Amino acid sequence: MDYRQTLDFLYRSLPVFQDVGGSAYKAGLDRIVALEEASGVPHRRFRSVHVAGTNGKGSVSHLIASALSAGRKPAGPFPLVITSPHLKDFRERMRVDGETISEREVVEYVERNRETIGRVQPSFFEITTAMAFDHFARREVDVAVVEVGMGGRLDSTNVIRPLLS
Asked: How many beta carbons lie within 10 A of that of residue 127, not counting itself?
């Protein structure tokens, strides 16, 4: 598949909250745990900051990312993870040092995990979360700023063990 076909697969195969509303929300962490295990539990390979709340998550995430980025040693890349929804391109949800995940990396992640995706039947946000965590682990980021999706104790981002929430 190419990038466009991969996105079509994701949008057709997975429930997207912006399209179907509350029925896209799947309570529980079983699916994200299964996706993470299939990729070697990548969220354990970087530190994180978890941002939740009713309003302002995106702004707060960007401020934290800027502050951490400005104060760091030139060691590893710094991501801002999972802003939802994206404005123009799906890849906006996963950035490292301001650079979005590449189209090739999106395609490769889906190809590597297609069997697991079919078996687990994750929501769109769950697959986005798992893809982001895999991307950040592969890029060997120092710290990820992770913005919750719907929030609550069953939000798929809750698999992380953040330094700060």
From this structure: 23
